[in-house]
Design a protein that fits this description.
alpha/beta; eight-stranded mixed β-sheet; 9 helices; 8 strands; 18% strand
Length: 322
């Protein structure tokens, strides 16, 4: 019973999320193929031409120049957020801002560093490619309802993970210090690998496969219970025949067991904080391995993520003032 109980809780929570009435999203997606091709090129460039791109690699400057040029070409105001590690190494987050009518902000990010000696196509070239495509989709946007910040964090991977040397920790501290009011935080990490093979999806709790299925063909959106409404909106915006989406609203205690990416550093903000992932090591055999290469990813599904995020930006609800 002790092993089944968490799975039952997750089932009930997921059922509750499915009952959330989300605003309808009209999704016309004629450019899926073009978006997929652009993201394929991006991930191949990052994983081959910029290999290795761990935080201490000489290739990091090339990666940062590339990110900056892409954001600037999409009409964003770009800054490099400098921070210094304990050993004196200088690192940068690449932050891109497009202003809207309100100074409230939607923050969407993906880390760009990798585990040493891995190509990092899925982890996390896939997340970076999605936010760069989202930037392109926002290039001609007029009258956004609020500010949109797209950020590429450095130093997410070990040995920096879960320390104050994470790029996202530095960024979150700065956001809090400046009193930026966040409407939502969306973190993308490992969103490119999918499999329709039965048994390709594993779970942290026995029995979850009875609820969510044994095929690793879906995108997971993970967040706390108080983010369920925003989660429902995001799910409906992204989901399509080509990409199933599973929403997992969790209690606070369960949510701490899924904080294995940059979103962990924003959980204290009073806004929805959502983690978009293919579940990483619960699915892909190439996680943190030299086999994490660009040709293994599904760029059509990644295109649906980018296009869905573009739609969701317009309809995520305002965050009530505290």
């Amino acid at each position: 019973m002790s092993r089944f109980h968490p799975a039952l809780c997750m089932f009930l929570l997921a059922w509750a999320c499915s009952c959330v009435v989300a605003q309808e999203v009209t999704q016309e997606r004629p450019d899926v193929h073009e978006a997929a091709q652009r993201m394929r090129q991006t991930v191949r460039f990052l994983s081959e031409d910029c290999f290795p791109r761990d935080a201490r690699s000489e290739k990091q400057n090339e990666v940062m120049d590339f990110l900056e040029s892409q954001f600037l070409a999409a009409g964003f105001r770009v800054t490099r957020q400098r921070y210094v590690l304990d050993d004196g190494e200088v690192c940068f987050n690449i932050c891109a801002l497009k202003e809207g009518r309100s100074r409230e902000r939607i923050l969407i990010g993906a880390h760009y560093d990798t585990v040493p000696e891995t190509p990092g196509a899925d982890d996390n070239g896939s997340g970076v490619a999605v936010i760069l495509e989202l930037a392109r989709l926002l290039k001609d946007a007029q009258e956004l309802s609020c500010d949109v910040e797209l950020v590429s964090w450095d130093t997410e991977e070990p040995p920096f993970f879960a320390t104050d040397e994470m790029g996202s920790f530095v960024h979150a501290q700065d956001i809090a210090r400046r009193g930026v009011r966040l409407r939502a935080v969306l973190c993308l990490d490992v969103v490119g690998y999918y499999s329709s093979r039965p048994g390709s999806q594993e779970y942290p709790v026995a029995g979850m496969e009875w609820i969510y299925g044994s095929k690793g063909d879906f995108l997971a959106i993970i967040g706390r219970l108080n983010s369920a409404h925003a989660m429902g909106i995001l799910k409906r915006a992204i989901e399509s025949d080509a990409l199933p989406v599973r929403a997992l609203p969790l209690t606070e205690s369960l949510a701490t067991e899924t904080d294995f990416s940059d979103h962990r550093n924003y959980l204290d903000f009073q806004c929805p904080v959502l983690f978009l992932t293919n579940t990483a090591f619960y699915r892909t055999p190439h996680y943190h391995e030299p086999t994490d290469t660009w040709e293994k990813l599904d760029y059509t599904k990644m295109a649906h993520i980018a296009l869905g995020l573009r739609a969701a930006i317009e309809i995520l609800p305002e965050n009530p003032a505290p």
